Amino acid sequence: MTETENIAYDVVVLGAGPVGENVADRTRAAGLSTAVVESELVGGECSYWACMPSKALLRPVIAQADARRLPGLSAAVQGPLDAAAVLARRDYFTSDWKDDGQVGWLESIGADLHRGHGRLSGERTVTVTGPDGVRKVLTARHAVAVCTGTRAVLPDLPGLDEVKPWTSREATSAKAAPGRLVVVGGGVVATEMATAWQALGSQVTLLVRGKGLLNRMEPFAGELVAEALTEAGVSVRTGTSVRSVTRENGTVVVVTDTGDRIEADEILFATGRAPRTDDIGLDTVDREPGSWLEVDDSLRVTGSDWLYAVGDVNHRALLTHQGKYQARIAGAAISARASGSAVQGDAWGAHAATADHDAVPQVVFTDPEAASVGLSLAEAEQAGHRVRAVDYDLASVSGAGLYGDGYRGRARMVVDMEREILLGVTFVGPGVGELIHSATIAVAGQVPISRLWHAVPSYPTISEVWLRLLEAYRDN
């Protein structure tokens, strides 16, 4: 028979990924007693199956591609990557899927970790069932924060379970490169994993249902990435859906909607995410299990004065850095309300996640990289803004030519013509991921173009594109 222990805290955090860790950090810094509940590894999806392992896989790929663009160095890096060494470095950055270090960090800030499956069991209450079956009932005086993230969604295809397809988890943790890999999807996970595994020795076929890649960015971003993937040896097939998947004598057999038959050793579905809220007791607080949780700008769930949903589960921006930003906002808001202090909920206030609406940055670590912040041209027009898009060929920037021979890239800024501020910026090209924070500052700060003229880019760097964009805006 299981025993039940009742423990009271100021705050209970459900989920110990980067988002949950940051909520706990902020509430502990404010002096609130905080419990963190985790059913898997402390550090979450980002640390073990997403951001860290994927970027560890991609960094050697991008470094090699950059080196091959430089005479005097290119001849030294013409051979294939050492896949075993790349995978070993990936394992290092995941701590070999052990969370001792992150557990130690939680302990260092004074948060209590409860391992097991946590479920809401009523207002301000979370019941945790541990691996040994022992139950603990955690009550929260001030707030429960749901930070459980998302899971990969697989399509409804007959017999797919028997095929044992890869999701993002298997794609980032595989111990060897499959000889042939089919990747289904055209978004970030699909393009990044196609980039990584092709370079590590896989023959990759990318099946995209839509017309192109990276459809949430400016169209030219997907076009340039598709062109580069094709040149690298990936077979990119757009306008293609999967009709059936089977595994025959160990071989994956894919039949497309056009009747084509593709054989592979593994298949990765990168076709979307769903909230991990199906078994966390939402029904006990009058919420729909498995649903995204709607929140206000302080990340408090609509209609509640104690329940918060932070990170992917609120569907605002499925990005680790944005979830951590939300966590800082939520932690500050919880702490302010707990102390009876005023909540600064106005736009750009200390307790408002305003950037979720206006200034979300993202980098896709393909070759070339694609980076954007704010609204695309189409999004700005759909929102009713009177805008102008200003484009510039990145290859014409001195710093880009020095970065590597044959540099290809493009930049766009979307200008609000009434206020003369930037609503969005997109860069595509080698090395542009390091440019996007300057664009984020310009968009989030609503910096007038007249003031941007005085932000002088260093010469000769790729960031000189800012001057060229401003000149193109002025002269046309």
From TrEMBL:
Residues 9-321 form the FAD/NAD(P)-binding domain. Keywords: FAD, Flavoprotein, NAD. It comes from the Bacteria. Residues 360-466 form the Pyridine nucleotide-disulphide oxidoreductase dimerisation domain. Its cofactor is FAD. Gene3D superfamilies: 3.30.390.30, FAD/NAD(P)-binding domain (3.50.50.60). InterPro entries: Class-I_Pyr_Nuc-Dis_Oxidored, FAD/NAD-bd_sf, FAD/NAD-binding_dom, FAD/NAD-linked_Rdtase_dimer_sf, Pyr_nuc-diS_OxRdtase, Pyr_nucl-diS_OxRdtase_dimer. Belongs to the class-I pyridine nucleotide-disulfide oxidoreductase family. This is NAD(P)/FAD-dependent oxidoreductase.
